[in-house]
Design brief:
The structure is a homodimer. By secondary structure, chain A is α+β, with helices and mostly antiparallel strands. Chain A has 18 helices and 23 strands. In chain A, the strands form three sheets. In chain A, strands 3, 14, 15, 16, 17, 18, 19, 21, 22 and 23 form a ten-stranded mixed β-sheet that branches. Chain A has a seven-stranded antiparallel β-sheet with strand order 2-6-7-8-13-10-11, with no helix packed on it. Chain A has a five-stranded mixed β-sheet with strand order 1-4-5-9-12, with no helix packed on it. In chain A, helix 7 runs parallel beside helix 9 (192-203). The longest helix of chain A is centred in the N-terminal third of the chain and has 20 residues, at 21-40. The model of chain A has no long low-confidence stretch (mean pLDDT 94). Chains A and B meet through helix 14, strand 14 and strand 20 of A and helix 14, strand 14 and strand 20 of B. Strand 14 (542-547) of chain A pairs antiparallel with strand 20 (621-622) of chain B.
């Protein structure tokens, strides 16, 4: 392992009090989790039924009925439990914990004697377990349940769910593996790989790490497991059964879709379903961290470079293709047909978090920051009540009726039949604490400037850290360092990639310019004492950002960014036909915090230019260039778009 | 009828000798028609089989076998016959005529005793005639056969095919109509409406005009015919039969798709499948011309304004939506996903031709010119051997693998399973003579500046007109007027919409500036004598064209046009990443005819600007604006693109 690892600091050890994030965390606690519980129990009027809880009751033999929903319906319950676990860590709530415990009881009763737990197969096809992992999401649902169990154990100390998933993992370990008689297969939707590594981390059971590594290593080998599976199904059920599969699986012959086209170590370009991809990359990083497998780490790094240097939107969104919710080819980042699923940006955060701990390089924390403040939370309305799957960078509402843009919603939706994004956002936001700090023996790293407190063991003593800031609206950060007693250790503070001219002060004394940041972190080593204060000053001018020239769609265009926040224009502030607006190269961009606007955001204003549209009513093409006039524009943070009804939106603005 | 009609002059009466078009006409004669004959007879190695001729042999009982191909496979034979007819008019060819006669004999033998002729139903489902006009193309195939018969009769004087189609039309007239016991229906794919009007024109049989008018009037009425048809099928074959239809008809419940969503007189926006639409509008214009129906004419005009002022590409292409090969909503004209089927641009020419004769306004001839020189012939390679269905205005070859751009071909294809565009181009080019002149008693209109000769009866005598030009490369036109004897009449010459500062001379004498063109035509009334010469001088500077600001995709962009020719940039001349090129507002655009280039075209050159791409290899987003450097560019006529292998192409260029 060439890199020097650092250890994550759990969300459990971090208490957040932040003017930006506390709002979101409260929304998750007060809106999203209760709403989701009602949804899982079919108590939302007018919403598509979920029946997810009912499926477990049927599987437990406590109710009559048919399975209902997607084949991965169980995972909605798991994600809810996981979000509940994180939320309980920061906001104890006996009533909510009781609901969770009851749900876990129910899961327990639905689990089969051999450890198997999946309501679809238990109810509908008990004889068809593990015969189509390509499509059936059995390990996917198990993976989410494992993550929930780990989180619930971590925050409550209760072991019932943990025991349940150990039994389930043991069962899966009896089905898959190198040994004679086991399936040499791997998930169709990756997720269990990273989940097993989490389970290993809390249980210390090597078999779980081994199984995760097995799934990673086996993937994409020839003869191809999904082909073999299909052949076996044809033998068992007749060849027509494969035809029937085609009706609901457009991707059955597309192994890039689920990243099984090549062994993972040979993968150089991110391809296929973006969520599957980043969940897998996160699992690969976990396995590399545990095993020190250099070739696996190298694959992670190559894929990281491909994603972040070729295939990522400025918002941290990934997966530009609607078809297959997938990565495309390098530099193919259309703004108006972008898929950029909320879950994919969240998965990118998960992966980046792991990469950062393999190698504390600010480039990983920069991507986490980019996604956190832009392309993830854009998936949720400011009132926490409606959600986007798809996060485009340019919207012309009328065009959303075009078949090739029909996936683009003009306003956020209450809930989805396939409800993956809202609970995924909930668990990310509720577990936000884990992204802020990490440590090794003598150094604490500060990655994100989220107002918080934690206590870290450094150089043999407990050190209390308190971070105060008004980030992302303001680049002044105050970090109070309080060791039990005077002692030498290091505090490595991240200088964000977007920041130029950062100043760092210790107890008011400016840190010498000789102390240059290394890989994005400025390491302050000294003898610290209680009450020492690090002050960071990150200048936050409004910046113009340009895209790589190969991103053809952004030619001649500019995006506005201030600090980590990417801006957009909305029709509500700027009228219609936003692409007609152009921003002169020398136009001054001013920032102003508006407490009453969109829950309190910094708005960017500028004097831009528009063309005169008079006289064009009956003219489609004309020789006369339109005269221009000054047009004041207001840009709002991208994450806050679509909170004022339907209208045009635009991130990349023409520059002149 | 408010407008003053003029009469078309047939392709038969016009002999073309034109440096631009003669090449194309020779290609049609020497390449397209023979190639298509081989295709119809399955003699092309490696091409998808057609079996169209074989289907007729099977239907005639002369060969055993199954029907093969699309349900409208017969129309390929009809379109070939029609193109042959026009070609024979200008290039007599006894061998070709013999092949056509033999084919007509075969059709004759395949026709059923009651006049019915459609090989699909005769071979496969003789009991299912006329039960699903929404999908089955029975009148569509008949319409193309009628057009072929009219043309073949006009050029050869032979009546066998004409008699055949009269019998077929009589049969259709016995199936559809107002009378008790007949179906009150109309075509699923419009075409027979205009064909019946042509049949009426040569036979004088009022029933054919009446049937056409019936189809037009009946369309879109409630209760909806396609619904009634479907109900009858369900009754006859069981409801499952309707489910099965869904598999091959995505548009079964979309009445906009085939313009039956409203009665035609209530239609204001062009919607649905673009070819169906313009064929119908052409039929509506024909019926309006015959009946003087003002409300029908008004509908035609409203739809004309909608198409040409809101939904037409600068190339004359129409139908921006791949899904349904369809019109979209106003101003939705994406360049890179444009469908713009070759046949739709051709259909626009057919419709415009009819509108022009209802009301000789230059705006109609301008659209014909725009489509002829740009978006129709772009469908054919310069060697006449390969074809585009789809004519986008911007191509990034790599992006054609994106599912939402998969309809965009990077290079022209040899032949298609659904072979509508190549024979449609063939018949348009072979019948080009009809677009040049028209007349009323005392006036000849000159619409298109295509080198040609014709003789027109004007004011009681025969007047010979000879037109010489090097159009579209050169705006000097010489029109020699030769009456049998001195006499007064008018010659109305079109001043193209793109032209400013036209000069007109009669016998070298400049026509006074007081003589202003009216509705696009300058009418020269005098006593003409043999040898009088009209000289037109249309200045052809290279022009910059701007799009209506509501066409969001073209904001800040400019197209290059010279005379009627729209230009594009190709990678072959300008390197890759064409969107990176920007054209300074003050850059001079120069034109130069290059005889050796792309078969002889005028190339436009300019000093444009590109950004410096160095240092961006690993950077996706950066703050540093790229420095610019001068970049000479060469633009070629749009119609000639994709004749030098695969590469990027761009019509709308950024302007700065």
């Amino acid at each position: 392992m060439s890199a020097r690892k650092v250890n994550p600091i759990s969300y459990k050890s971090v208490s957040i009090s932040d003017p930006f994030w506390t709002k979101y965390r409260n929304l998750v606690r007060d809106e999203v989790i209760p709403y989701q519980w009602d949804a899982l129990n079919d108590r939302i009027e007018g919403a598509a039924p979920s029946r997810a809880i009912r499926n477990f009751r049927i599987a437990a033999g406590e109710e009559e009925g048919e399975f209902y929903g997607y084949i991965f319906q169980d995972s909605d319950v798991a994600k809810w439990l996981e979000a509940v676990a994180y939320s309980l860590a920061s906001s104890p709530d006996p009533e909510l914990e009781r609901l969770a415990d009851e749900t876990i009881e129910l899961l327990n009763r639905a689990q089969q004697p051999d450890g198997y737990l999946n309501t679809y197969f238990t109810i509908k096809h008990p004889d068809r377990r593990w015969e189509n992992e390509r499509d059936n999401h059995e390990t996917y649902c198990a993976g989410h349940l494992i993550e929930a169990a780990v989180a619930y154990y971590e925050t409550t100390g209760k072991t019932q769910l943990l025991n349940l998933v150990c039994k389930l993992a043991d069962h899966i370990d009896s089905v898959y593996g190198e040994e004679e008689g086991k399936l040499r297969g791997y998930p169709g939707h990756q997720e269990i790989e990273l989940a097993l590594m989490r389970l290993y981390a809390v249980t210390g059971e090597e078999r779980y790490a081994h199984l995760s590594r097995f799934f990673i290593n086996e993937r994409g080998r020839e003869p191809h497991f999904f082909k073999q599976e299909a052949d076996r199904r044809a033998e068992r059920h007749g060849r027509e059964s494969l035809l029937a599969e085609g009706y609901y699986n457009l991707y059955k012959h597309n192994y890039e879709y689920n990243q099984s086209h090549l062994p993972v170590r040979e993968q150089e370009h991110a391809v296929g379903h973006a969520v599957r991809a980043v969940y897998m990359y996160a699992g690969m990083a976990d396995v590399a961290a545990k095993t020190g497998d250099v070739s696996l780490l190298e694959a992670c790094r190559r894929l990281w470079d491909n994603v972040t240097q070729r295939q990522m939107y400025i918002t941290g969104g990934i997966g530009s293709n609607h078809d297959g919710e997938a990565f495309s080819f390098d530099y193919d980042l259309p703004n108006d047909t972008a898929y950029t699923e909320t879950c994919a940006a969240i998965g990118l955060v998960f992966w980046a978090h792991r990469m950062l701990h393999l190698d504390p390089d600010g480039k990983y924390a920069d991507v986490i920051e980019r996604a956190l403040y832009n392309g993830t939370i854009s998936g949720m309305s400011l009132d926490g009540k409606s959600f986007f799957y798809v996060n485009p960078l340019e919207v012309w509402p009328e065009a959303c009726k075009r078949p090739d843009k029909m996936h683009v919603e003009k306003v956020r939706q209450k809930w989805f039949g396939c409800a993956c994004c809202p609970p995924n956002l909930a668990r990310m936001i509720a577990s936000l604490g884990q992204y802020i700090y990490s440590q090794d023996e003598n150094t604490v790293h500060v990655h994100q400037y989220i107002g918080s407190e934690t206590t870290v063991g450094l150089s043999g003593q407990q050190v209390r850290l308190s971070l105060e800031s008004n980030y992302p609206w303001d680049g002044q950060i105050k970090l109070t360092v309080a060791p039990e007693h005077k002692g030498e250790f290091s505090v490595a503070v991240r200088i964000p990639g977007w920041c130029e001219g950062a100043s760092v002060f210790v107890n008011g004394q400016k840190v010498s310019a000789d102390a240059r940041p290394r890989k994005g972190y400025l390491k302050l080593t000294r003898e610290w004492d209680a009450g020492d204060v690090i002050t960071l000053d990150f200048p936050m001018p409004v910046e113009r950002i340009y895209a790589n020239p190969k991103v053809r769609t952004n030619a001649g265009k500019v995006a506005i960014q201030r600090g980590p926040i990417v801006y957009c224009l909305e029709q509500a502030d700027n009228g219609e036909i936003l692409p007609d607006i152009s921003l002169p190269e020398n136009a001054e961009l001013s920032a102003r915090f508006e407490p009453g606007r969109l829950g309190g955001v910094t708005v960017v204003t500028a004097e831009a230019v528009r063309g005169d549209s008079r006289g064009w009513d009956t003219t489609l093409y004309g020789k006369k260039k339109r005269s221009k006039h000054a047009a004041p524009i207001q840009a709002i943070p991208y994450f806050a778009w679509a909170n004022r009804g339907e209208g045009e939106m635009l991130v990349w603005i023409r520059e002149e």
